[in-house]
Specification:
Number of domains: 1
Number of helices: 10
Shape: globular
Number of strands: 19
Order of helices and strands: EEEHEHEEEEEEEHEEHHEHHEEEHEEHH
Largest sheet: 8 strands, mixed
Strand order of the largest sheet: 4-3-2-1-5-10-11-12
């Protein structure tokens, strides 16, 4: 086996510019920095193969950023194999927008009247962001040095099921109405009310498994860790300031105890999970009041609570995983494009979207109220229009491209494996992969960059229940395509295992 070399680097990617903060249907213009948003790069290389992990405190990893970073890395150091870069996000809803105009279904500044509201250029921020990411990757690559790796797992309650299922069909309730460009009602609802006589159950369970990979220098000193958690970082998702959310709180607490170690967070499959408790709100409020004192912000208390649990998990696993630090390891990295079955748009669905789009386009922009009220209303309206337009685009696209192309990375590092996807992936798919994987532990990484945005990838039961995240607007790939992702991933992992 070959000697493993390890390189780390990180950058603060915060900006004081009034950038849009994506993650809601309306535009939120940043009013400053709550706490730093960062990017972290890790290079693992054994002389035969390598992997470059890159995680950013952003909501999504779009193709425009992946392409820009790979081009800049290649220009800075042509010896770096840019196809081996896996770029993913923590899925914070408090990161800055770098999107190209009209590149997503949500509104952009060029589409929405924003008189009296200054909005900084996303193109300018993307240029700055891609420079920082490329330089961090090159730095991590150049800092490769012999070291050791240990791995393990622990438990921390972070994510909860966020899809509520009812005995009845919500679309058939008195007064129910469809909201064009947003939600298709059914038996399930994202963040639905659980204090409802027809509340049945949560659609999915939860996964409290935390996968951990630690790195050390040759003296045995901890230098960093990959922390893989099936939950987006969205405790403070409604604020108008940049923030790393609970990952910031975790990094601060970890470094107080372990010094200036690097943290590379990975969001595992969590399309149907979030850090939000739905049916025990009163108990949680009492917990926070007694634990942290009166008058605190709920989201900040929630973040502290999660960070404390993650730190306990980190230390618990480190206590025994560090007994098996390995300096010579097999490393393999497969990169290939796979094709997945799309969620096809029917002729009737396309006709309905055309009708809804016409109605939305006839709706005028708001001209009264203060500037932020107008921006909120008008950007929601544009987002709804864009989502209808996206359905019509997909309807035409599927005629020539019935399959969704995804860049799949499968990585082996000794006894553990990593596999990416470009979706907000429902938890069941992760479990299908992990249960059949030939490796001791398998880290799933969702929302990794791809040529086309994949949206949510709902399960069969999710598609039945409908609601936000499991509707025509949210699902580019079908549940059958989700199972194809499972099988393709497992085939790549088996190939690495058998090599």
């Amino acid at each position: 086996m070959q000697e493993i070399k390890i390189g780390w680097a990180s950058r603060d990617i915060s900006t004081t510019a009034p950038v849009d903060i994506p993650g809601q249907f309306h535009m939120r213009i940043s009013e400053g920095i709550q706490d730093p948003i960062t990017i972290t790069a890790l290079v693992l290389d054994n002389g035969v193969d390598l992997v470059i992990f890159l995680t950013a405190d952003l909501v999504a990893m779009r193709a425009c950023l992946v392409k820009a970073v790979r081009a800049k890395v290649a220009a800075l150091d042509p010896s770096i194999p840019v196809e081996k870069i896996i770029m993913n996000v923590t899925h914070t809803h408090e990161g800055a927008s770098y999107y190209e105009a009209n590149s997503a279904s949500m509104a952009s500044a060029d589409q929405v009247p924003h008189d009296s509201v200054t909005i900084a250029s996303s193109d300018d921020y993307r240029e700055e962001l891609s420079d920082k990411i490329a330089s961090a990757i090159v730095e991590a690559y150049n800092k490769r040095a012999p070291g050791g790796i240990a791995y393990g797992y622990s438990y921390a309650v972070v994510g909860h099921s966020r899809r509520v299922v009812y005995f009845d069909d919500l679309s058939k309730r008195p007064g129910a109405s469809s909201t064009g460009g947003t939600i298709v009602a059914g038996h399930a609802a994202m963040y639905g009310n659980t204090n409802d006589p027809n509340f049945s159950h949560y659609e999915a369970g939860a996964d409290h498994f935390v996968n951990l990979l630690y790195t050390f220098d040759l003296s045995g000193k901890l230098t960093g860790a990959i922390v893989n958690v099936p939950c987006p970082s969205q405790c403070s998702e409604h604020i108008r300031r940049l923030s790393g959310d609970y990952w910031h709180d975790f990094r601060v607490r970890l470094r107080k105890q372990h010094g200036s170690v690097y943290v590379l967070p990975q969001c595992a499959a969590a399309g149907d999970l979030s850090p939000r408790i739905l049916h025990a709100k009163a108990a949680q409020e009492r917990r926070f009041r007694l634990k942290y004192g009166e008058g605190g912000r709920k989201d900040m208390d929630e973040r502290k609570d999660i960070a404390e649990r993650l730190l306990a998990a980190f230390n618990e696993a480190l206590s025994w995983a560090s007994k098996d630090i390995q300096t010579h390891l097999p490393l393999g990295h497969i990169v290939k494009t796979i094709e997945l079955e799309r969620r096809l748009i029917s002729e009737a669905e396309a006709a309905n979207e055309q009708k809804q789009l016409a109605e939305l386009e006839a709706e005028p922009f708001k001209t009264d109220g203060d500037p932020i009220e107008r921006l909120n209303y008008n950007s929601r309206l544009v987002s709804r229009r864009n989502r209808c337009r996206r359905i019509l685009h997909r309807y035409e696209l599927q005629k020539t491209q019935p399959k969704f192309a995804m860049e799949l990375h499968a990585v082996r590092v000794g006894g553990v494996a990593f596999a990416n996807n470009s979706f907000e992936l429902y938890m069941d798919y992760m479990h299908r992969i992990q249960a059949r994987s030939p490796f001791v532990q398998t880290f799933i990484i969702q929302l990794a960059g791809n040529e086309e945005s994949g949206g949510y990838l709902a399960t069969e039961r999710g598609a039945w229940g409908k609601g936000y995240s499991a509707s025509i607007y949210c699902n580019v790939v079908s549940p059958a395509g989700g199972q194809q992702l499972v099988e393709e991933t497992l085939a790549a992992l088996q190939q690495l295992h058998d090599a």
